[in-house]
Structure prediction request, 411 residues.
Amino acid sequence: MTRKLVIIGGGAAGVLVALQVVRSSRTPTTLTIIEPQQRLGEGVAYSTQDHTHLLNVPAGGMSAYANDPQHFVAWAKCAPHDFVARHRYATYLRAELADAVATSNTVRTQHVCDTAVTIGQHPLQVTTSNGTVIKGDALILALGNAPPTRPDWLHNFAATRVISDPWAPRALDAIGTTGQVLCIGTGLTFVDIALSLARRGVRVQGVSRHGLLPMAHADFGALPTLPASFDSPRAVLRWIRSQTDWRAALGALRPVTQQIWQTFSPLHQAQFLRLARRHWDIHRHRMSAEVAREFADLQATGAIVVQRGDGRQHAESGTFDAVVLCTGPDDAALFTTPPLRALADAGLIHRGPHGMGVDTDAVSGQIKDAAGNLVAGLFAVGPLRRGTLWESTAVPEIRSQAQQLATLLVA
Ligand SMILES: Cc1cc2nc3c(=O)[nH]c(=O)nc-3n(C[C@H](O)[C@H](O)[C@H](O)COP(=O)(O)OP(=O)(O)OC[C@H]3O[C@@H](n4cnc5c(N)ncnc54)[C@H](O)[C@@H]3O)c2cc1C
Prediction:
């Protein structure tokens, strides 16, 4: 009998799962990837065609295979510490998948270029926006991050002046080469957008509640030895502070962050999110040294200004030609998008711990329904698993999930 697997979302996570399935399957399998983009691998992060948008992780951390860490370095013909243009990563993923498919005797793949709108449980199937129904023995949700939301108060502004999703194709085209733009949010998305705009001559003001910018990558020495366990988030933060190099400390924590997160009580997890989330994010998700240098130069000339404050107050000052939301994904909006809304309405999914992502089994990524029961045949990969795992956004974590899931699916 032919096994039928359906991956919903053909961004980085979906392709990584597909790749692992194709490489490890030994029995006849049809693998369908439902993805509205023409080209696989081009989700939010890797669809940018701006060659100056670099990976935020050194090439040495971006291999598709955890057991072959230098694979991407060899493919990109670069050094492990180089930061490669992001769009090349999508090319890499597609090339790897194409190679794997070409040499597989058992797996047939197809890309259905459409959006999944509903998911049925009995039988397990997906319906796409043009009415196509695709049945599967297992469905894998690889939908990426929640979309950004546009705060209500921004509705007062003329539509053309507000860019709610700066990663949407040609989103910045409406902004010319002069004038003043307000960006709300000062994380990694802001850094990319601010650089793109400032290079064309636009003056950029970034504002966020804390006014914190991502730190820069830099070389660090040997990783310190971790204590046997941490009994609270405070203990983790104390330990990081006690180390001579915080980058090395985070490097040591990275492979075990998910395990540490799961040993914390819900109260401790909430405490971490309340007290340390912003600082964790800016230290853990860093920009390349090259990007940091250019950003600092543009700050020095006044072309980019970063401030701490209230986005609404700044926007209402009325002196901006456009407002760009760089606030990133908003978990509150997760269930507003099909097919998650339909699944939530049917009680098949519910929010993950602390409202992040959806509730899943920590090991397999199998979805848990509103009563906490595992839903047969329904899995998630990538940022949707953030509540359960905390770190579930970047390639090093996603490729491990993809491998574990593929092992389970082809067993
Ligand atoms: C700007 C930016 C830069 C980043 N840089 C890095 C980096 O350098 N290194 C790193 O490790 N991580 C980086 N990340 C983290 C990034 O989230 C992951 O690396 C990775 O892209 C996540 O993959 P994903 O497949 O889960 O999401 P995505 O790549 O966003 O893919 C989700 C896919 O699902 C599709 N989809 C959505 N809804 C439906 C539907 N209803 N039906 C069918 N398909 C649907 C979308 O079209 C999309 O292609 C970055 C993130 C961002 C936002």
Observations:
- The chain has 13 helices and 14 strands.
- The chain has three domains: 3-147+330-410, 152-215+288-325, 233-284.
